[in-house]
Design a protein that fits this description.
Keywords: Ubl conjugation pathway. InterPro entries: BACK (IPR011705), BTB/POZ_dom (IPR000210), POB1-like (IPR045890), SKP1/BTB/POZ_sf (IPR011333). The protein has 539 residues and is an alpha+beta fold. 38% of the residues lie in helices and 20% in strands. The protein is built from 20 helices and 16 strands. Strand 10 and strand 11 form a beta hairpin. Helix 1 crosses helix 8, helix 3 crosses helix 4 and helix 8 crosses helix 10. It is elongated.
């Protein structure tokens, strides 16, 4: 029966038995050959030098080379699929690193001796033309301990050493893997590592993946997660070779990298120039966050288009990336209707997909509030419908053009949002348009006109656009308990010029404490529902 290879680094320590002849039943010959440095910290002889930046630059160059090769291949179409490029990159990595090479020997060299570059003591049958063996290291091992920790070694010892006189195995590795392999073998005995240096930990992580030591992969992941993270290291963790990044043992590390990027760049507007240079995996991590501090979802959509056009100049490739990777990150349901119209005419987006996204967004906007909250809270649909930390609150807007230009704007505020307004805060809505003019709503906590108590105020403003003036009839209303119907609270007529606002400082004619009380008439299921109706009757 096969042993249990369940992940985990627990269990007894056999550190005392590592490379000790009295506690070993095999000898492992490690042949070190020259290899293409394609691992973090690779600088020859497994020194662990070079750093994360070097490896990141190397992998970036490899991506660029793959893209150039793809573009110059005449028998392929111009259309480039990003997923194919990433798959090729992963294949290229695996070709360089090679699968672990294990061989059986009957006449091993002296145990514990390193054999020099002259090749003495190396069986010539194992020497590959064009890949000279730099040195050979032989250590004592316990087949039971290694087999218990690794399916690779279990298969090696159970299938390759059936005869009792074959007590020796040979592994061939590149010089950049040597230090990592020795750390890995030691870990399989002791359950611990001697380093917390990020470059070497990444080398060990890759060696653990190569030799199927899941417990070590998890341990490296935990150590790397506990170390201070930078944008460079986070992007590197998201760019690990395919076989590693897909492993469940490394998931906490990639999750931590995504969280780091999402937190660091949550104010997207502030870091917009820097984020424009972040690769696709980082963009996905940032834009998956609910905590992005942006003016509105329109801002995210506009940013993604700029980023995609800068990173993918070829239209077919750009359309593919937008369709498969980026548009699913956009929450169309919280975009303005004005921007949704532009989505339908965007040439970078497949028209069928654009129509589907816009239709779904409009259906959401027309849905009942309790249904909207259910969709936003559902684990399956929350990615599409959950609100982010918008600086300007989304609105529902219904427009009419007959008999007069008219619109009705609905603004919903959570109780906790209103609570944070005290004593002098403001919340602004997204802009909405009527007769070509941009308007917005703003909710305030302010002093009552006589300066005797705080109260809730609602104002209507017009965006600054030239010196044009427009006269508007307006009415504010709010849903109230127990009926749940909208009740008119204030109406008036005002001639707007750019930047001006009009409203009522005490919309509900009650003090702030009464407005926010648990038995307040204006919060229904924790939500304040406001309505503003605007009409332009002048010619």
């Amino acid at each position: 029966m096969d042993p249990d290879f369940s992940p985990g680094g627990g269990g007894p320590s056999f550190e005392f038995a590592f490379n000790e002849v009295n506690f070993s039943d095999r000898e492992l010959r490690i042949e070190v050959v020259a290899g293409d440095d394609d691992a973090p910290g690779s600088s020859g002889a497994g020194a662990g030098g070079g750093g994360l930046a070097d490896w990141a630059r190397h992998r970036k160059r490899r991506r660029e080379e793959l893209l150039k090769e793809k573009e110059s291949t005449t028998h392929m179409s111009d259309q480039t699929n990003c997923n194919e490029v990433e798959a090729e990159e992963c294949d290229a990595y695996e070709e360089n690193q090679e699968e672990p090479v294990a061989m059986i020997e009957e006449s091993p060299p002296d145990v514990g001796q390193d054999v020099g570059d002259d090749g003495q003591g190396i069986d010539s049958s194992w020497t590959v033309v064009g890949t000279p063996v730099l040195r050979v290291k032989t250590i004592y091992i316990s087949s039971a301990i290694l087999a218990a920790k690794s399916p690779f070694f279990f298969k090696l010892f159970s299938n390759g050493m059936k005869e009792s006189d074959q007590r020796h195995a040979t592994l061939r590795i590149t010089d950049s893997e040597e230090t990592a392999l020795m750390e890995l073998l030691s870990f399989m005995y002791s359950g611990k590592l001697t380093t917390t240096e990020p470059n070497l930990l990444l080398d060990i992580l890759m060696a653990a993946d190569k030799f199927e030591v899941v417990s070590c992969m998890r341990y490296c992941s935990q150590l790397l997660t506990s170390l201070p993270m930078t944008t460079e290291s986070a992007l590197l963790y998201l760019d690990l070779p395919c076989s590693i990044s897909m492993a469940a043992a490394v998931q906490p590390l990639t999750d931590a990298a995504k969280d780091f990027l999402a937190v660091k760049y949550k104010d997207l507007t502030k870091f917009q120039d820097e984020v424009m240079n972040i690769p696709l995996a980082g963009i996905e991590a940032i834009l998956s966050s609910n905590d992005l501090q942006v003016a509105s979802e329109d801002t995210i959509y506009d940013f993604l288009l700029r980023w995609a056009r800068a990173q993918y100049p070829k239209s077919e490739e750009r359309r593919e990336i937008l369709s498969s990777r980026l548009l699913p990150l956009v929450r169309f349901s919280h975009m303005t209707c004005r921007k949704l119209r532009k989505v339908l005419t965007c040439t970078d987006i497949d028209h069928e997909q654009a129509t589907k996204c816009v239709t779904e967004a409009l259906l959401y906007k027309a849905d009942a509030p309790h249904r909207q909250r259910a969709l936003a809270a559902d684990a399956v649909t929350c990615r599409k419908f959950a609100e982010r930390a918008y600086k300007y609150r989304p609105l529902k807007v219904v427009e009419f053009d007959r008999p007069y230009p008219q619109c009705i704007a609905y603004l919903d505020l959570k109780r906790e949002e209103c609570s944070r307004l005290f004593p002098s805060g403001r919340i602004y809505s997204q802009a909405f348009h009527l007769a070509g003019q941009g308007f917005f709503l703003s909710a305030h906590c302010n002093m009552e006109q006589q300066s005797t108590f705080y109260c809730f105020g609602l104002f209507l403003g017009m965006q600054e656009k030239g010196s044009m003036s427009v006269t508007v009839d307006y009415e504010f209303a709010a849903r109230t308990r127990p009926s749940g119907e909208f009740v008119s609270k204030y109406k008036g007529n005002y001639t707007f010029t750019g930047g001006k606002a009009v409203g009522y400082r005490n919309l509900f004619a009650i003090p702030w404490q009464t407005f926010m009380a648990d038995d307040s008439l204006f919060f229904i299921d924790g939500m304040l529902h406001l309505r503003a109706e605007l009409t332009i009757k002048q010619p």
